[in-house]
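User: Can you recover a sequence for this backbone? Please restate the input before giving your answer.

Assistant: Of course. Working from this structure:
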């Protein structure tokens, strides 16, 4: 029966999921008409094209949801549902047309607590304050309304975008949060001072309901009200699960988004920096919902990054690092132009994964609605987009507009801005609908599900318009009839549903803010909050609809604002349940997941390790414009050993350029104290990127090898010379100046091993980059140890190793079981390279067996590599940390990312041009500005952005130029384990999706839980990524418990206790008298220490 039900759920008819119903079918002829003229246009009022909203709710009291549309320059409209998708225009009868003015957002709520839905309309525009006052239509029944905003204290004259009614103080009635926007762009101001100001018209506001009268308590409640906020949406949800509703405000332009955490005392604390690593840049519509059914609400925010290459190159200007850095220095939070999906980690932080999820690029987007449109139990995503003019068209901004104003100046007349506006292009594209694939990724089903119509849409809302158990969509368009999409789920599959209505207390009849979770027999749990205001300028039907898939029943648990709870053990599928707070049982306790014993605990003050890595100010992009990420920020180095022969592990931390490395000696209580080493201070001008303790001179103590790296110096290559410090026997170190050969290479890694079998430790040293010549392969080295003197034997015994690529990490291990260790090296734009040793003594040679073991096509941006028996079968497997899947650039064996490098313009500088596939075709990553600054000869070829937007690599360069260039590729960015099949070959196994959130910079392979199987502890991020794409900061540290057979169980930070959200570079296990601990060394930051707990 279960199998049959599953099959039925998957059955589909020829009917798409949605059918667009025209006005002849629905009777809805509403059009939000926008008419431009000399006085009214986007250059006079920047939000001229921001459109109107729609509200869904039963205002007529007949049990069917009705529709209310707002218009910017016409009359608003109320359509009453007659059943079977037929509506009648009752605007005139109800007298709710809007009284003129520039109407924006709309929400329905029972404001006067009489059981009838009222309508609250926001207004903005360039009109005088009296014409901007918001409207409140109180429902008197029988489609009779009275405008009474002033009577309730809600006739606010701000530049309002949207209102959200909710019970913020859990006192049983509904309050109001009003998101507003400025109309002025400020330049050259004191950011800190400006952020503290209050603007009565631009600042957001919180109104508290005091016995039916709304009182502005914004300042006292901690709500920011400055004149630089351009609020476009606010989403309400309980992000920390404490039963009190929090607020996320999406701000356009440079001002930060706000995350207000409810302090449960009538106030909020704005705390976005603690919770979120970065946000969208020009934040627009937003929504809060649980996208992965872990019962933690996630946050999705829209921006303006197009999906296709042409519009990316035409509409998106350059994002220079200097501007990004200036904003950070001015006090702004990191912001990047793309949609953001903040995945709630459940530990007080979010990981931003929109690029991994496949929903980061939806063009000029407005409304985001997360809801289960196919009733499979997971929330899908609907996005509206479109803008009447391509306002950010780079040809218009850079050429047409300046030319127009210059000609007007010469004529000496006033500018006819409408004439200029008409020169802006206008492009219609479709909205987006994404299906949730149940694995934190989404697939684009826009056309397949019937929503492929080109249009310019703004506000949107969902509701079950025909009460058939699925969510229909209503969309407010610009200069086109509103769209009504009928959901055809019942015709396409046997997926079940459950509709839940809430009956709250007298002051909150709809139960707004209540959280409802449902649980089905298969263990799947879903949660929703009843919060009608969602997306952009709109409100959805105040009813909760859960898709159940094949489940035939579900248990229900409700938590009401104020803490009351109730549960229903079993509700039949395909029914409508009303849950009444009067039936709540105060004795009902919430179900809690079984607590997981943490494996790690953070140690206070890092056990005395007070080292703070301080990065030097060099910015790679100022010289190397086309770099994908910085190569000057690879430290700090970290290594551990007993340097003073007391039986305790000590440690070395390497400094950035201009900062000396630091030695720490362990005390008997497990703490560490710094020790001054003059030799380290003398070498402070080196950049320490890796280090290893080993006995170089065979005297029984731990000497120190330090790899010098960086990317700043291109003339003085001596600053990249590695260093060997000999131990005096008890922790005193001095540099052995003549012990190493001349090594003018910016390195990345050192891997010790007695590869010549003579009893002392030799070294492999991997070259990272030739400064200023990325991506040409730097020199790597095999250094033979002869009684503490090292010589370069690479060309003699291993020529292929010498220039194998931009190496990042290496290790040694006997992967083929022949009794000798192979050398495994990884790097950027490299395969997993494997070199086998043959011969003895003078006949030793290393041979590249990468192809033999089947790893030649496993190219990536690898950061680290380890060899260990991951599946317990007795041979060594390989695990390698990669960039991860949470980036703009995608790669696969059939659609690789490629890099062509040559001195294309003959100026003596290597030009690295990266391309990757966008919508099935390979395009260059660089914007026109970036490429023309790097290769100036192309300025004559691409005189405008339009021509460059259609240019492939083959258009830009000749066939001969590309043939002569160095070509590299990447076939995948996933962090992967490679299973040793025991036949001399390896099989790739992609690690869990949580391991793909961010670059994995380092990992520890160990049996932490002592079950006989190897586990993985990984960490990473990269805060120095190019500003155009944004920094990688979604990594929180991840514990992967080995299960055997190359399978791993993900243990998130909230359960494992290992939390590493920094720009991590190195992880190391250290033995102490109080137990084993994990050290985390971070770029441009301090060190963290975690104790490893014994399993219970």
């Amino acid at each position: 029966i279960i199998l049959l039900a599953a099959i039925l759920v998957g059955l589909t008819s020829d009917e798409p999921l949605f059918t667009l119903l025209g006005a002849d079918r629905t009777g809805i002829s509403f059009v939000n008409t926008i008419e431009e003229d000399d006085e009214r246009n986007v250059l006079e009022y920047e939000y001229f094209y921001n459109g109107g909203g729609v509200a869904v709710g039963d205002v007529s009291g007949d049990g069917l949801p009705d529709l209310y549309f707002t218009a910017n320059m016409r009359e608003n409209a109320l359509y009453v549902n007659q059943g079977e998708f037929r509506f009648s225009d009752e605007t005139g009868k109800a007298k709710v047309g809007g009284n003129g003015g520039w109407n924006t957002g709309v929400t329905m709520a029972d404001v006067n607590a009489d059981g009838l839905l009222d309508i609250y309309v926001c207004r903005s525009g360039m009109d005088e304050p009296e014409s901007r006052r918001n409207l409140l239509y109180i429902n008197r029944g029988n489609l009779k309304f009275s405008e009474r905003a002033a009577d309730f204290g809600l006739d606010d004259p701000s530049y309002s975008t949207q209102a959200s009614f909710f019970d913020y103080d859990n006192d049983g009635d509904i309050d109001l949060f009003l998101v507003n926007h400025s109309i002025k762009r400020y330049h050259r101001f004191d950011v800190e001072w400006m952020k503290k100001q209050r603007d009565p018209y631009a600042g957001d506001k919180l109104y508290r309901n005091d016995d039916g009268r709304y009182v502005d308590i914004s300042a006292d409640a901690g709500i920011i009200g400055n004149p630089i906020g351009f609020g476009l949406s606010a989403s309400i949800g309980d992000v920390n699960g404490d039963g009190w509703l929090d607020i996320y405000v999406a701000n356009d332009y440079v001002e930060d988004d706000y995350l207000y955490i409810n302090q449960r005392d009538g106030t909020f604390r704005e705390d976005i920096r603690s919770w979120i690593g970065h946000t969208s840049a020009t934040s627009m519509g937003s929504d809060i919902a649980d996208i992965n059914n872990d019962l933690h609400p996630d946050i999705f925010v829209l921006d303006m990054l197009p999906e296709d290459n042409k519009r990316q190159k035409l509409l998106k200007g350059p994002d220079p690092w200097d501007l990004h850095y200036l904003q950070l220095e001015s006090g702004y939070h990191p912001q990047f132009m793309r949609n953001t999906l903040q995945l709630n980690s459940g530990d007080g932080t979010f990981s931003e994964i929109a690029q991994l999820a496949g929903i980061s690029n939806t063009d000029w987007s407005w409304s985001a609605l997360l809801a289960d449109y196919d009733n499979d139990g997971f929330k899908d995503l609907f996005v509206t987009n479109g803008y009447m003019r391509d306002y950010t068209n780079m040809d218009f901004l850079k050429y047409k507009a300046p030319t127009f104003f210059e000609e007007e100046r010469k004529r000496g007349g006033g500018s006819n801005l409408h004439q200029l506006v008409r020169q802006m292009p206008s492009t219609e594209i479709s909205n987006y609908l994404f299906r949730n694939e149940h694995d934190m990724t989404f697939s684009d089903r826009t056309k397949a599900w019937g929503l492929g119509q080109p249009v310019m849409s703004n506000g949107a809302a969902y509701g079950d318009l025909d009460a058939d158990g699925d969510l229909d969509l209503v969309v407010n368009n610009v200069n086109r009839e509103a769209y009504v999409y009928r959901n055809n789920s019942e015709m396409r599959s046997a997926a079940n549903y459950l509709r839940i209505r809430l009956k709250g207390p007298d002051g909150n009849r709809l139960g707004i803010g209540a959280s409802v979770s449902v649980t089905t027999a298969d263990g799947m749990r879903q949660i929703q909050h009843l919060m009608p205001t969602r997306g952009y300028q709109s409100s959805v039907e105040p009813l909760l609809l859960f898709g159940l898939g094949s489940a035939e029943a579900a248990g229900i648990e409700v938590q009401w604002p104020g803490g009351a709870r109730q549960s229903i053990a079993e509700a039949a599928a395909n029914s409508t349940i009303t849950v009444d707070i009067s039936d709540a049982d105060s004795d009902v306790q919430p179900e809690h997941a079984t607590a997981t014993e943490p494996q790690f605990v953070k140690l206070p003050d890092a056990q005395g390790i007070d080292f703070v890595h301080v990065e030097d100010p060099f910015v790679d992009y100022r010289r190397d414009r086309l770099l994908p990420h910085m190569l000057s920020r690879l430290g700090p180095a970290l290594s551990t050993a007993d340097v003073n022969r007391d039986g305790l592990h000590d440690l070395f931390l390497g400094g950035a350029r201009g900062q000396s490395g630091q030695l720490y000696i362990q005390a008997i209580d497990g703490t560490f104290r710094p020790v001054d080493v003059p030799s380290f201070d003398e070498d402070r001008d080196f950049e320490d990127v890796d280090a290893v303790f080993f006995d170089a001179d065979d005297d029984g103590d731990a000497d120190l090898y330090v790899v010098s790296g960086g990317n700043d110096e291109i003339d003085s290559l001596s600053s990249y010379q590695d260093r060997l410090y000999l131990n005096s026997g008890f922790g005193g170190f001095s540099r052995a100046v003549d012990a190493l050969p001349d090594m003018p290479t910016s390195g990345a890694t050192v891997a010790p091993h007695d590869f010549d079998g003579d009893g002392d430790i030799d070294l492999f040293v991997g070259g990272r980059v030739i400064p200023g010549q990325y991506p040409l392969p730097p020199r790597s080295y095999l250094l033979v140890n002869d009684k503490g003197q090292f010589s370069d034997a690479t060309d003699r015994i291993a020529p292929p190793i010498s220039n194998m690529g931009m190496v990042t990490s290496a290790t040694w291990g006997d992967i083929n079981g022949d009794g000798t260790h192979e050398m495994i090296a990884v790097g950027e734009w490299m395969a997993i390279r494997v070199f086998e040793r043959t011969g003895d003594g003078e006949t030793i040679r290393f041979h590249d067996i990468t192809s033999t073991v089947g790893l030649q096509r496993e190219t990536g941006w690898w950061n680290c590599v380890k060899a260990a028996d991951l599946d317990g079968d007795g041979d060594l497997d390989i695990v390698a940390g990669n960039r991860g899947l949470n980036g703009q650039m995608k790669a696969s064996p059939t659609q690789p990312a490629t890099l062509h490098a040559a001195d294309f313009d003959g100026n003596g500088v290597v030009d690295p041009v990266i391309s990757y596939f966008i919508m099935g075709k390979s395009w260059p990553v660089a914007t026109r500005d970036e490429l023309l600054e790097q290769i100036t000869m192309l300025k004559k070829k691409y005189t405008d952005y339009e021509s460059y937007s259609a240019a492939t690599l083959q258009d830009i360069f000749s066939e001969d130029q590309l043939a002569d260039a160095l070509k590299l590729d990447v076939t995948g960015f996933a962090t992967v384990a490679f299973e040793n099949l025991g036949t001399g070959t390896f099989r790739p196994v992609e690690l869990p999706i949580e391991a793909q959130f961010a670059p994995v910079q380092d990992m520890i392979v160990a049996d932490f839980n002592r079950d006989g199987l190897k586990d993985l502890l990984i960490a990473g991020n990269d805060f120095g990524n190019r500003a155009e794409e944004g920094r990688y900061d979604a990594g929180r540290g991840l514990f992967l418990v080995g299960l055997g057979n190359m399978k791993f169980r993900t243990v998130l930070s909230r359960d494992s206790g290992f939390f590493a959200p920094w720009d991590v570079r190195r992880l190391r296990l250290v033995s102490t008298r109080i137990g084993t601990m994990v050290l985390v060394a971070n770029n441009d930051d301090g060190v963290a220490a975690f104790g490893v707990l014994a399993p219970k």
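That completes the design. DSSP finds 22 helices and 74 strands in the chain.
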